[in-house]
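Q: I'm writing up a methods section and want to include an example of the input and output format. Could you take the sequence below and give the corresponding predicted structure tokens, formatted cleanly so I can copy it straight into the document?
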Amino acid sequence: MPHAWKEERAAEQIDKRLKDVEKVAIVDYVRDTDLESIPTAKAYKVDGVHLYADILNLEDMLNCTAVEGEQCHQRTLRFLNQHFRAVDRILARTDAKRVDFHNQRLHALISKPYNTQAGAEAARVNRAVAIAQMVIDVLKQTGDSDEHIPAAQVRVGIDSGRALAVNNGRNGYREPLFLGEPANQAAKIASGSPPGIFLTNAARAAIGLAKLNDPSKSPLTQAEIDTCKQAAALDVTVQSIVDEWKDDMKKNPIGGFQFTRHTPPFRTMDIPALTPANSRRQEALSIYADIDGFTKYVNRHIDDRPEDVVKALHVIRAELERVLTSDFDGRRIRFIGDCIHGLLCEGTAQTTDVQETIKSGTECAGGLRSSFNLALRKLDEKGVDTEGLGLAIGFEYGFMAVSRLGLKGDRVRCAVSRGVLASEQEQMRCTGVQTAIGPLAYDKAASTIRDLFGNTRRTSNLDYDATTGKPAEKGQNSSSSVGGGLLRSPAPAAAASGFSFPAKAAGPSKKPASFA
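A: Here is the clean output for your methods example:
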């Protein structure tokens, strides 16, 4: 069944989402407020310290074998699982809140002591630094040489300030999302190398450290870290965490990661049912769509019309997910802040149809931009300011591994591969009007798709009509272009040979590993 984006259908769904947030309540975060199930039309203003821990050697794990086979994905998932369980234990024991764990990135919030207490901000920053150092020290000891799992190399970014906490997720998968400068700046300063603990100037000022021209280049000194640790006085030690983690690993072993294919479409993949022994792996397309300019937008409105932030985020993200899942039969993996990450695949239970998958991904990218533009128009009509917002889209093709990490009852979903990392990198090189295609997808795509992106593999204003090759006339429904456009082939292509994958559990790779 061909996939298509239709303006009338998108407009109808956007109108429904606008009704969800006709009246939005903005309240201050107070002690013991539950942030796990925030209603759609509500947001909390939260003063806190945001900590991002970035595992720097994830890419090394994905390249531990020359070919991206089962073995490197098994090792990578185990690598992430072991370290996630250790870090989650640290957060639980130090009264920090896990906000998100997306592949190599952890986001945590330190909200105690609350602002009603003197010196609260300094105390939170000191505590965040102490927790960060504990994460670094513990993860030095949670590798496993027998399983070819190295210790994690960690870089931590910390910022302090006010953010908006809203609902993150839909359909039973809900968690808090923090919007604004502190979460964004902590993530930015955590990116890059070398390892260490890096504080923004706002966080540095809170504990009396001098302002720097570029704090991302100056990790805290050991003396500064020791001062923070002494002030925080955590009542847990590195050794106790490591001992508890080892005991937990003995009592609740991870087990081997075993893969089967999912019969397309990916929309029907039951991610909550996945476990290490019941994971998925096959050739597919990974796509990232990020709302560009959203942090500045939040900063502009957090004290003036914060309701606009809640309305814009809810309407846009709900529609992006609908396009991915309903129009193009893809599967949302997760929302990452103001970004959506999804997978899609065309083919059969045995094989992935390479060119059809890339074509569907290209049209999906066009549909995402068309719906985004339509959502902005409808938000504007309702008096919601959307100035400065754009959509940056990147996608790539390759083998994708999907599983869940952690223990039963508290697992987090995970999709990881070289292609996942590449698709995010493609998105990151785009402005709010651009779409980029990864090198592997570009090489395997039909010439009509390569022509769309050119030698730079990046193009501007690629909406759905552009992907079908028939610009809509004024007043014409975009769906009328379906059927003879640029990306439409006369008949579905046969499943590509050379990309077969057995519809059964995949055994360990027989290729020798060159672990890095």
